[in-house]
Amino acid sequence: MYIKLFFIFLIPLLFSCSNTAIENFEDLKKIEIGMSLETAKSKMRHQPEKVETAVWDSTKYVYYYKSPAFAADYYKIIVSKKDSLVSGIDYGE
Question: Contact 76/63 with Cβ under 8 angstroms?
């Protein structure tokens, strides 16, 4: 009985660590504050899940990238609308 329960919980855990999320994390570590948006996007192997205006600052865009399934939030690249430079990087919670 315990072995069945173990495998029931183990299988989703293994699938939650998808390659996309791992690659996004690795790529995000290559991004630097002040980097141009085009350079930052070229370092990311995957497209963002969505792009929105930052809720806290209407002068910034937030590029949301897939993170692990059990993470509290997306990985984010925050970009200034004015000059298209990276102004922040968020690794989620």
Answer: yes
Q: Which of 36, 62, 58, 39 is nearest to 50 (CA)?
A: 62
First to last CA, the chain: 34
Least confident of 1-5, 10-14, 24-28, 51-55: 10-14
Nearest to 37 by CA among 73, 90, 92, 88: 88
The CATH number corresponding to 18-90 among 3.30.70, 2.40.30, 3.40.50, 3.30.1450 equals 3.30.1450
